[in-house]
Amino acid sequence: xxxxxxxxxxxxxxxxxxxxxxxxxxxxxxxxxxxxxxxxxxxxxxxxxxxxxxxxxxxxxxxxxxxxxxxxxxxxxxxxxxxxxxxxxxxxxxxxxxxxxxxxxxxxxxxxxxxxxxxxxxxxxxxxxxxxxxxxxxxxxxxxxxxxxxxxxxxxxxxxxxxxxxxxxxxxxxxxxxxxxxxxxxxxxxxxxxxxxxxxxxxxxxxxxxxxxxxxxxxxxxxxxxxxxxxxxxxxxxxxxxxxxxxxxxxxxxxxxxxxxxxxxxxxxxxxxxxxxxxxxxxxxxx
Length: 287
Fold this sequence. Notes:
Elements: H1 4-28, H2 33-63, H3 68-90, H4 116-119, H5 124-153, H6 164-187, H7 192-217, H8 224-252, H9 258-275
């Protein structure tokens, strides 16, 4: 019998493997600028769709009273602002490290690109800030994954499908983050052995966040539903912030491939919406 714990363990393992693979990707192949932008566009659409079609409805279902909307919106705003401040303080989402020659013309030349010519100036101190910011962000992803598995698993007998939308959003996003941290670790002068250790440690961050929340959740007793609702709304806000303030602006400032990028963005949203049909309708009903 498939339990919520088994589902979370499977998701966490897949995320860890995907994240580690993303970290070694720069040493194996060179991601072109267009491919990187297409991936970012699709993931931003997926994260935005997951926030609105999955996390927020589940949050409302957990609160389950007349004040549900007020509570969910408050926690959504707290999650959005917290992630925005995290991004501002540590500026850790730097996904595109392709050479400037591959970028083609851009309408907004003042937009700050994080390319190889810029990354070579990364200091060890700034790298540590980026690593810390990505680590906190990744632990939040793990908490979001555990929260949605707990929320959906408690409302459905179809445990094999719970949390699928959030899982895909994190699974496709983590390799991009791992590429960032691996590239910055390399340009900061870390040895190959230390780069591997950093990549391995980063790959374990999301499962760690999921494990801590899953195991600690049982001790909250009667306030558990409110905690789940707040956590899911917080995660929705964080996902919206990442999609709109980090991933999409990077794509928006590129005039070339605009049609392809727009299509992949819409496809990401469509994928998030399509996943909701796999879930039982009862998951979105108020308790």
